[in-house]
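PT: before anyone asks, these are the final sequences, not the draft ones from last week. 702 residues across everything. Please model them as a single complex and drop the result in this thread when it's through.
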Amino acid sequence: MSTTTTATTDRGPTTNLSADGRGSWLPTWPLISTKFLELRKRRGLMIAVLLLTLALPVLVLGFRLLFHAIDPHSYGPAGSPSVFEALCDPLAQFGFIIAAALGATAGATDLGEGMFRHLVITGRSRVALYLARVPSGLALLLPLVALGFTFMCLVTAFEGTPQPTSVNVQGVTVPLNLSEGQLHTFLLNHASEFGPFGGPVKVGPNGSVSISGGPGANGPSPQQFVRDNFSNLYQDYLDAKATDLNPAPNEMIKIGLWIELQVAIGFIVGLGLGSLTGQRTVSVIILIALQIIVTPILAMNVIPHFLDGQRLIVGVAMDQLRPAALLSTSSGHGPGKVILGGRGSLGIPAMPTWAMISVIVGWILGWTGLGAWRMATRDA
Amino acid sequence: MTLVADPPVTSDSEWAVETHGLTKRFGPQIAVNDVELLVPRGSAFGYLGPNGAGKTTLIRTLLGLTHADSGTMALLGVPVPQHRAVALARVGAIVDEPRFHSHLSGRNNLRMLAAARGAGAEARIGPALERVRLSERADDKVSGYSMGMRQRLGVAACLLGDPELLILDEPMNGLDPAGMHEMREMIENLVAEGRTIMLSSHLLDEVERTCHAVAIVDRGRVIRQGPIQQLIRSANSVVRIECADPAAATSLITASRLAEKTEAHDGGLAVTLPVGATRDTIAELNRRLVEGGVPVYGLQEVQTSLEDWFLSVTSRLGESPQ
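LR: through. Structure below.
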């Protein structure tokens, strides 16, 4: 503060005043990029984000690659369908939680650290200040999740177990990559290979299909048997593929999109809740409880007279949206194919597709609206 | 909230800040009470009051950090909150203690604020840091800054918008004497550039040294405002008299009806003259005492300071301002 240092401006202040667009609710690129910078500079949080998104698959698969390279007889290939599926779930779960933490940080810390007041005094629309946080946070999270998931896909595809060209469906060897119709035709043509069993097809507790009462001397014709039990045989075919085969590239893309959506929802809900409460820690605790306690309970148990309420939870809707290739053979509930090929993994009756989409979109828009409203009306 | 930019507003108002009947309540508590305030452009204006008088609340209301319950206000002639974005485009402010993201450097904090300011603010970061002498520490994390450095960073943040009006809430807080001196110089320079400074403070001496005009606020209400010298002139002046017989002198002065009040003071007398009394009144006092047979050893008119005047007009006479 010297009398001789450079002045901020050489001219005197003008009297022609203009808001130069700062009243607009649309966030500008500088707003987004500086918020990105602010989040990126939070070292502890960034380490946690890296660990739970990129480092999780990289470390697990990296060690498996290393062990296999050192001792291939004792350690199998790094990638396998089961390892792939085992990594997708934690990536989605931890991704949601760390995204919620990042969102709550973005939503609450300007206020807690005294920066909100400075920002408001600039005259910039408070809604624009809020909305700038959405792309900033997503730009941090989504590429990291995409990198981690891509690594998983690459290892599974190129360093995985050798891929069979056929699977076994109740003793019948069936080629891979048949559509539902093609499978139907194939099984009709090979119906005689099923052999006599003496009873109807039953689905066991572990999802395996046992066929009794199959085609035989006293039973229906082989073709009739296939026609009568095709849905179970198709399920068995899908389960066998899921167990033995890597997901097809298009299935991997669907799984990746589903995980990214899960992470994006975590961030947006965390951002809204953080802005609403002004408290980062409280918001994160609430969302962790939602994700790992409340959602699993509501997704697996029907509460009498509260089924529609259960379906309003975003995690329940996301479980229903879960891609088919991510379903373990033990699950199989759901309404049939919906977006991303999901058949649901719910233990409760599935909701209509339009309701599932409405719940997900409603959570995204609702929390964004709540957070923006609180920020626009809050005393700074 | 508008989709497009607000239209440019040209203001020829002579007032940088103008409020009428401004009131802000917190439940039953009235923090800002029917405030009528006029801050002339191009001057340093002090908003002076004891702690809890409502200074910060008024500033927060002006800046749109909280809403007013009633009344009207304008910054640089632009009504707020109706055209808040237009008005704040040329206003810089520090409210309360300046706080920033401590994990970011000073420069990066300014980058965030410049992004919100827009319109060339990014280019002013360097000169603003240089002006507040923070250039060398600009890339250090704010967590390592002293209170004085944060104050200076707050001033740099104000300068990003090339403001016509700066509103500084207790800008001397936390500054050491050298820092206060620098801040005073800074304010003088900013005023010399044609900007208006409105600062709130409870440091009477600082306001007297820095400001041209002042408003006194007490319990949320502005009780006096105007140029400092004019306000002080409107106060009672005091004459200290050293004489041989204070008791006789007191009788003579009381009989003369020239004084409002006469008190014993440090072996002599402190005589309070009525508002508007001139030096002729003092000469007349002297003549009466000498003619009454009281030898006068000394007669001194005591210059009323802003502090004396402040204490005389606020309702908290027993409470010394901090």
